[in-house]
Amino acid sequence: MALPSSYLTSFKNLDAILDSVRAAQAPDRFTIKFLEQIGYTSAADRLVIKMLKTLGLLRESGEPTQAYHEFLDPSLSGAVLANGLRDAYADLFQINKNAHEMTAADVRAKFKTISQGAYSDAVLGKMANTFLAFAKNADFESVPPTAIPLEEPGEADDIPLTPRIESGRDATTSTKARLVYEINLHLPATRDPAVYDALFASLAKHLDI
After folding, report:
1. Is a pLDDT exceeding 80 seen at residue 176?
2. CA angle, 74 then 78 then 82, to 5°
3. In terms of domains, do 130 and 181 share one?
């Protein structure tokens, strides 16, 4: 199990920083200087840069990713954060798919288990509060914009089926045959097990399997 090592030490400016990032033009590199240009100069504020890298909005070089550009769209920003949190904290979401609804104490306890006691309780508390502070700004009800959408109800019937006849080893002597369907699926590139659960539940419902 892995746990992101990045965390914030102060959360009072996080909401404002995210709003300012959305309002500003994307930089070529998201640097301390850029953060200062949009109004945030404290050492605690600078830790946001590491978190944006952790959540996949920035590359290690500070260059904005596609997710960063999607985040600038207010209608997508919440889903982008949710997608980044699910990916960065995949082990936590495997334990509880609604981890964003957990209390700070519960998140801290799970982080202690995931990290196998590698961090002090004080650091784990900051990690838990960082996760929840970003989760508060995320929209977990929306489909992440980078994910491949599942079929809508009723569309599973349109999945191409290739029938073939299988018989016994000796086709000249066997009178029994059965119809077999091959279903080719292109699964979405996600680490969220809930996505696969929903997909196969839809198949089971519409194909009566």
Report:
1. no
2. 155
3. no
